[in-house]
Amino acid sequence: MNILIAGFQHETNTFAPSPADWAAFLRGDGFPAYSEGADMLRRFTGSSLPIGGFISEAQARGWALLPACWAGATPSAQVSDEAFERIAGNIVEAARQALAGPGLQAIYLDLHGAAVSFAHEDAEGELLKRLRALVGEQLPIVASLDLHANVSADMLQLADGLVAYRTYPHVDTEATGRLAAQLLERRLQAGQRLPLAWRRVPFLIPINAGCTLIEPAASLYAQLPEVDARQGTLTSIAMGFPAADIDCCGPCVWAYGEQAEAVVQQLWTALCQPPQRWRISLPEPLAAVQQALALAEHASAPVVIADTQDNPGAGGDSNTTGMLHALLQAGAGRRYPGQVALGLLYDPEAAAAAHRAGPGARLSLSLGRQVSTLPGQLSDPPVQAEVTVRALFEGSVRLLGPMLNGLQSQLGQAACLELDGVLVVVASGKIQMLDRELYRCVGVQPEAMKLLVNKSSVHFRADFTPIASHILVARAPGPMPADPASLPWTRLGAGVSAVIPDTLPQTP
Q1: Which residues contact 189 (CB under 8 A, 6 or more apart)?
Q2: Domains along the chain?
Q3: Which secondary-structure segment (H or E) carries 144?
Q4: What is the DSSP annotation of 142-164?
Q5: Scanning 86, 253, 279, 386, which has the fewest C-beta atoms within 10 Å of its C-beta?
Q6: Alpha-carbon Rg for the chain in angstroms
Q7: Are 144 and 111 in contact (CB under 8 A)?
Q8: Rounded to whole angstroms, how far apart are CA atoms 56 and 179?
Q9: Which residues, at least 6 apart from 80, have a Cβ–Cβ distance to it below 8 Å?
Q10: pTM above 0.90?
């Protein structure tokens, strides 16, 4: 059994300001840097990513693995055509060589499922199309997907099996890779494609509402193991990534097995009825900070605020200043000097200036950027301030939290800057604040803070919930609106609405 393995991870926000070029995949930033061949196999064996789980299951079954390449980049605007062609070309060429050499019995792909390139709005569907044209209709292809995949009809029809994460924050990535291996084994044992049923959801779901630690997503996803065990199916629910202006954007439910049709109908109904459960309401920055300060007076653990609309895990650049302005306006640092922290602020220039000046130095800096958010709208202006350099760091950070555990985050130059009692962690690498080590590397002990502002939407909850007294989500101006209905859609598929309706028909 020779199994080709490869990976392509990008979550594309077509409304975001910055595209992902080939250099972004070479760096990786919050992802591992681009790798191929034997180096790729060494890097991901035992890792917490989906490909790590697949490798473990494959090795336990005695399958021989043929590593092609693995490429991931921080979510952003479209993938450049050069980057997509390099990645897809390398994967297809590896499959071609395997067919001509040792032989090939199956392919496993570690995909996100929401990648858009400038030339191909369904980038994963295009990759699958090229592979299928090469290997024919009979060779099995399976893939693992992110919970936020925008699953297309092409993806479902071209792959023999797709399986998505079941948690958000994504703490089951390795387990999903194992599920993909189990799905491949079922397909091989059957000798033919498994029965498939799928159905798209007719409205977009805000990413904050899809957190599986809270309702209604918690109960929805909790049903999957029991339903699959009872019905003999393997089922996935992808929430979709609601910032990709493409035809296949939106949630999708699909299942494999003899009872797939009944299972899909049951879970589609559980997700859609009533639809208004998925609506969210978030406070403005100053209101969120004032609420957090009031809670902190009596709290014995940090109050955490998520700056969701500048989340670099969803296409933001992690450089807007709405929450920093609110902290300063509310006097948060004066009330709790050195116990209020914000991170990560992507500001390579500020980080470099701090490194040139050294610890203890006083600097006049412009922090953050003013960026376009919605058409005709801008985020808050940069913060002009006198800052003190409290600590410096340079290099990669080994993450220890539940997400991406053990992987290295390419942070580059970073610094802890203090202004008016507020600690701001600036960095030259772009990654959302999903792990406490990203604070600790510059001397900020998150457990000792009264108030933390994290540039993240949901992933921060995995490592910060255990230390938080309260969690708030704020709506500061940024490139990733919390409400999909506020985006200027032009290409949503027929029957899919960016506005969550009050009711839906009970039947298809």
Answers
A1: none
A2: 2-278 (3.40.50.2300), 285-482 (no CATH)
A3: strand 141-145
A4: EEEE-TT----HHHHHHSSEEEE
A5: 386
A6: 23
A7: yes
A8: 11
A9: 19, 20, 21, 22, 117, 118
A10: yes
Q: CA–CA separation, 17 vs 373, rounded Å? A: 9
Q: Please, are residues 100 and 37 in contact by the beta-carbon 8 Å criterion? A: no
The span from the CA of 474 to the CA of 23, in Å, is: 32
User: pLDDT by residue (tens digit) across 16-44?
Assistant: 999 999 999 999 988 999 999 999 999 99
For the chain, give the number of residues: 508
- Whose tokens are 């062609």? That residue is 85
In whole angstroms, give the CA distance from residue 483 to residue 425: 27
Q: How far is CA 451 from CA 101, 214, 289, 425, in A?
A: 58, 22, 9, 14
Whole-number Å distance between alpha carbons of 10 and 479: 17
Q: How many CB atoms lie within 10 A of CB 44?
A: 25
Closest CA to 91 of 66, 58, 62: 66
Strand partners, 454: 306, 343
Q: Which of 241, 250, 236, 8 is nearest to 131 (CA)?
A: 8
Residues 6+ apart with CB under 8 A from 39: none
Give the whole-angstrom CA distance, residue 314 versus residue 340. Answer: 25
Whose tokens are 């060494």? That residue is: 42
Residue 472: phi and psi, rounded to 5, are -120, 155
Could you write out the DSSP letters of every residue in 23-86? Answer: HHHHH-TTSPPPEEHHHHHHHHTT-SSHHHHHHHHHHHTT-EEEEEEEEE--SBSPBPHHHHHH
**Which strands form 451-454's sheet, in the order they lie side by side?**
362-367, 383-398, 408-419, 422-427, 340-346, 451-454, 303-307, 470-474
d(CA 256, CA 233): 5
pLDDT tens digits along 280-313? 999 999 999 999 999 999 999 999 999 999 999 9
In the predicted structure, residue 505 carries a pLDDT above the cut 80: no
Helix axis angle, 50-60 to 37-44, nearest 10°: 90
Please give the backbone phi and psi of residue 80, each rounded to the nearest 5 degrees, phi first: -65, 150
